[in-house]
Amino acid sequence: MLARFIILEGLSPKTISKVGGLHQMVGLPEYGFAAVARDSVQCLPECNSTNKVGASFETPCGRLLIKPADYVEMISSMKPNIWATLADEVPAWVSDKRNKTSVDRTVRWLDECIALSSAGGAVFGSIVGGPSVEERERCTQEVARRNVSGYWIGGFGLGESMDERPALLNAVTAILQEEKPRLVCGLGLPEEVLQGVAAGIDLFDSEYIYHLTLEGFALTFPLGGVGVNVFSFDPNNLGSDRSKINLRATIYRKDTSPVVENCSCYTCQNHTKAYINHLLNVHEMLAQILLEIHNTHHYLKFFSSIREAIKAGEFEQFRKRFIESRRDHLAVAAVCV
Amino acid sequence: MNWPRALLTDSGGFQMVSLLHLADITEKGVTFQSPVDGKPMLLTPEESIQIQNRIGADIIMALDDVVKTTITGPRIEEAMYRTLRWIDRCIAAHKRPNEQNLFGIVQGGLDPVLRDICVRGLVDRNLPGYAIGGLAGGEDKDSFWRVVAQCTAALPEDKPRYVMGVGYPLDIVVCSALGADMYDCVYPTRTARFGTALVTEGVLKLKHNVMADDTRPIDPTCACMVCKNYTRAYIHCLVTKDAMGSQLLSYHNLFYMMKLSRDLHSSIIEGRFPQFVCDFLRKMVVLYAFFSLCHIHHVISVVTGIFVYLRELSCWGQGMSGSMIVFVSIR
Asked: What range(s) does the tRNA-guanine(15) transglycosylase-like domain occupy (chain B) (predicted)?
């Protein structure tokens, strides 16, 4: 399970250490935690304010400048299982000069973080490089030379187009050692995840579920599986987006079926679409709780089916079938209109 | 809701008091201005019961004419008599008397004469249970407990007595000693949303800066999931920023209230209720001494006939030694 590093005002490193680290603090001792500086919901990298001293982030507590030393201090009090070194993340539209600087800084901070840290937890080297294949390769080569346990690949999910991504991702993963895990932030849509997996990414961190839940959506896309073809044409669902439904819609007011038939999550086992629709209408937080439970469950099952497909050596077919089925209903709808 | 346990629905009557500037009360019923779209809505006793019949709760409440206890004058008397007329309409409209228990609500403000008339009127209708309404609106405690005591003394002993809108743990203990059985209140969850936890000693304000590095659980003696897994420091940094802070505190506070009920209940069954009350008060009052200057007068009579008098629990000073005078005489 991946978690984000949120700089909480009032929660000092000393206090976290006193409790025994992040696991004890948040009451989840049996989970694995990965700490990264960026949190696409609450802690966005602000590349214009980042300078040679530290990385800048836009947070609900204002703009914060994080120096490598502060970052490492936080990390050592939190004791996560995995942590990524401090990076200078830039979006795809910055100038070449800015992009080059981000690579230089990230590598320098990587060395600083490793030097300052007193072991504990697996260090993931941060790789940036923006939209430039050359810079990506340069950064990757530098990071690959350092003694890290895995790689955190940044700079994605910041507004670049999906088409540009494969080239950039492949440029990075081609150079990296195969036995070391690769973690990427910001790829959330099922298609993006499949794109990442195809390029060799192992771990994903995204806020996709969070945003879906906030808007009242529930994931319903068929999970498929090895050899199972559930991507069949359904004439009753023309024009509808079969990947998710919005429980705010009035058509669900009297729908006493679960969100997804045969889903084994708490929400689908115990409650109906009508109930969630009602909760959303009366602004009850239980709506988001139930939706988040289902969405997380569904999303994790998706990952599980990816793993199965990889194990069976059928990932490429799985991916192809999945993408095609998502386009199928659109094509049919277009024909019939 | 997929809730297999007991449910109780209210009539909508309380909204009359809390939204009074939007309400027009006549013999027919209550006209609200709908907060959703501004259109006028009429809630009659018949309509209220019909809605409650459809929702299907185990206990349903009659529509009563509620007035604030801070009001004086003929309005209180009017409301009390109307409540009696409306209970007949509620009874007539109730389509599921064998599945749902219709409770009547005793009104009458703080006037013992009016209260008495109302109680006798409701008891004549032989209802499955009785609520004591119109309290929990800011009246002083001296008047509050006197009304509760009068009603519980007059209501049948073999039917549940439900004090609506109560409340603070202390009030629940006192009312239970006076013979009440059921309560409802927003206090535990509302106070949780403001960062306050209910503990044995009283309350704990998690927003306070001293909580920022207090790594103890909310209540070290509490067995709830929150106290077993989370620290005050963590909840402190959540309370103003994340819904989870409210959730954790709500969970703990509800656990506290359920434990309080369970302990009250078993102490009665095991014949040690007075001892329980003394222990409860002893632990709680110590904290009040630090935060407020207060005089608590309580006369508590226990239904089984054992009288426990706690007189003049006076607390002095802020931060100084609290002096407690507790007279306990058991006849």
From this structure: 1-284
